[in-house]
């Protein structure tokens, strides 16, 4: 999929992508800085999009670890399947609320999310966050990028600890919320 095709997909489905551009390398690095992927065994990404966060995860992931990437756009999934064809990366064309159906009882070390929670119905928001929290191991983290600080209240409803940082090095500037 060409960059122009990716941009067309991004803008034609703004309510599901929730972004005006793809995540910058600076934002991806900031998000990943809250993890130690060299020690992780199971990692999940919610909202794979163009694969910019996926690439950052894959570059730091231990060879024996696995990555499950959830994405509801079929065209984004097809592009990511070509880009990330290694055995330990599974691209899943399904909603993030179904995370539990793909884990086979395994616990997750990190969940990285770029889901546009502002555009997701409240009952689905709650189900995604409920399933995410249940899926995390005892030392696991849910790490979310978002464009509104007001979403912190939603994450506080599901996680006891929510640390927030901000980066200007993205268009638009973004928050990284680290939830435990």
TrEMBL record:
Q: Which GO terms describe its molecular function?
A: RNA binding; rRNA (adenine-N6,N6-)-dimethyltransferase activity
The lineage is: Bacteria, Pseudomonadati, Bacteroidota, Cytophagia, Cytophagales
Q: Which stretches make up the Ribosomal RNA adenine methylase transferase N-terminal domain?
A: 27-172
Q: Tell me the keywords, alphabetical order.
A: Methyltransferase, S-adenosyl-L-methionine, Transferase
Report the protein name in the record.
Answer: Ribosomal RNA adenine dimethylase phospholipid N-methyltransferase
Keyword Methyltransferase in annotation: yes
The record's annotation in SUPFAM superfamilies points to: S-adenosyl-L-methionine-dependent methyltransferases (SSF53335)
Alphabetical list of SMART domains matching this protein: rADc
Q: What Pfam families does the database record attribute to this sequence?
A: Methyltransf_25
CDD domains referenced in this protein's UniProt entry, alphabetically: AdoMet_MTases
């Amino acid at each position: 999929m060409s960059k122009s095709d990716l941009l067309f997909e991004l803008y034609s489905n703004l309510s599901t992508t929730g972004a005006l551009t793809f995540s910058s390398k600076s934002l991806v690095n900031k998000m990943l800085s809250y993890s130690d992927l060299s020690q992780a065994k199971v990692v999940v990404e919610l909202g794979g999009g163009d694969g910019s966060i996926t690439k950052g995860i894959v570059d730091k992931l231990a060879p024996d670890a696995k990555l499950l990437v959830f994405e509801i756009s079929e065209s984004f999934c097809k592009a990511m399947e070509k880009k990330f064809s290694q055995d330990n990366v599974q691209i899943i064309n399904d909603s993030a609320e179904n995370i539990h159906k793909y884990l086979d009882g395994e616990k997750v070390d990190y969940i990285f999310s770029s889901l546009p929670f502002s555009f997701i119905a409240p009952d689905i928001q709650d189900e995604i966050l409920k399933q995410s929290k249940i899926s995390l191991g005892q030392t696991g983290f849910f790490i979310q990028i978002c464009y509104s600080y007001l979403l912190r209240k939603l994450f506080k409803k599901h996680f006891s600890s929510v640390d927030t940082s901000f980066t200007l090095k993205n268009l638009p500037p973004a928050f990284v919320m680290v939830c435990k």
